Recover the amino acids of this structure.
């Protein structure tokens, strides 16, 4: 197939992952977690980035949890695979080794034993503590992309994805990170990548010159009555802890933009287009504000069925915020915002959008 290329040697691969600031290159597009809501939000954003010519320039697509659903579909329909017949559901029997080498598609999970980001790509699997598979490892030809997506989106509510690997599979790990006397075996337990990094930044922040982040995670909200019994109290405490970690990552990301560490833009589910205040035509940009934005901030985090209207409004929202970001920062990225059409223009009407989002905050058991 067209994506088959010579294996990347270990030394070159290591340099790629440890490039100094002066050696940064390439555009990374990072897709956050947030269930199927995030997948739809990213689908709209990716549509706008494609219209601006940015998808074809990307060197890396990194994803977590719900973002990995969009990332897997994008990998599946990338030009290398357009001649293949679609199979059932998302990616069928596609293997990691069959993914394109350029751009790189990376699916991020969290390793419960090492506590760090575990990645799946066409080049390698593993994490920096456990170690990585060797380039061109036969395991890359037997590991399904669907399995990578399942690991990446395994909400902590669900059991982790457990897989046994032969001895010696992972090499070059950071033995100094292990307590004295502790060794890691061949069994790996993986959970939702958002537990470690819900924005999918880990494979990109050290190496890329331009970083775009589409964040479909649910914004943290203040509640009037926090439960005091055990389960509600623990759930709310987890939300507070997770929010603080995520807020620090976002502040660090924005500071990196402002300090010139790399170029790029961030947009999140709870962002108002009016926040791109320096865009000269921001008031005329399409997008949701006020009541519709409030409703979007409450859309459930779910991996189950979303109604067609919900899907269209979420894709519109991702498209509109990516569009606003390009209006503000596109010149720095070498693209113009230009005219383009959102996925469902008729649902930009606030009343119709609110009607489509009715009941969207309620989790539905098995899609009902």
């Amino acid at each position: 197939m067209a994506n088959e290329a010579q294996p990347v040697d270990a030394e070159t691969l290591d340099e790629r992952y440890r490039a100094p600031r002066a050696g940064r290159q390439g555009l990374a597009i990072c897709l956050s977690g947030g269930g199927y809501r995030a997948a739809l939000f990213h689908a709209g954003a990716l549509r706008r980035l494609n219209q601006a010519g940015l998808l074809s320039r990307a060197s890396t697509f990194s994803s977590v949890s719900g973002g990995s659903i969009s990332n897997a579909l994008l990998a599946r329909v990338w030009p290398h695979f357009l001649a293949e017949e679609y199979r059932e559901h998302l990616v069928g029997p596609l293997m990691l080794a069959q993914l394109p080498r350029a751009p790189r598609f990376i699916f991020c999970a969290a390793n419960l034993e090492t506590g760090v980001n575990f990645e799946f790509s066409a080049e390698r699997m593993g994490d920096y503590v456990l170690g990585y598979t060797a380039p061109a490892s036969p395991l890359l030809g037997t590991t399904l992309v669907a399995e990578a997506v399942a690991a990446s989106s395994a909400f902590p509510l669900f059991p982790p994805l457990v897989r046994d690997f032969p001895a010696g599979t992972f090499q070059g790990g950071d033995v100094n990170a292990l307590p004295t006397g502790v060794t890691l075996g061949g069994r790996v337990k993986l959970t939702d990548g958002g537990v470690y990094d819900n924005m999918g930044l880990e494979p990109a922040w050290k190496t890329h010159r331009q970083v775009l982040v589409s964040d479909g995670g649910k914004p943290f909200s203040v509640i009037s009555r926090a439960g005091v019994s055990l389960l509600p109290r623990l759930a709310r405490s987890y939300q507070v802890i997770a929010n603080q970690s995520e807020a620090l990552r976002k502040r660090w990301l924005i500071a990196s933009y402002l300090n010139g560490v790399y170029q790029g833009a961030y947009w999140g589910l709870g962002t108002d287009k009016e926040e791109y205040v320096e865009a000269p035509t921001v008031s005329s940009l399409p997008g949701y504000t006020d009541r519709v934005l409030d409703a979007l901030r409450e859309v459930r985090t779910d991996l189950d069925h979303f109604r067609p209207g919900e899907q269209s409004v979420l894709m519109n929202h991702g498209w509109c915020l990516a569009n606003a970001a390009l209006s503000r920062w596109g010149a720095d990225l070498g693209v113009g915002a230009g005219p383009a059409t959102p996925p469902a223009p008729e649902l930009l009407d606030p009343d119709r959008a609110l009607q489509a989002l009715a009941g969207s905050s309620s989790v539905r058991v098995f899609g009902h």
Observations:
- The radius of gyration is 20 Å.
- Confidence is low (pLDDT under 50) at residues 1-19, 80-88.
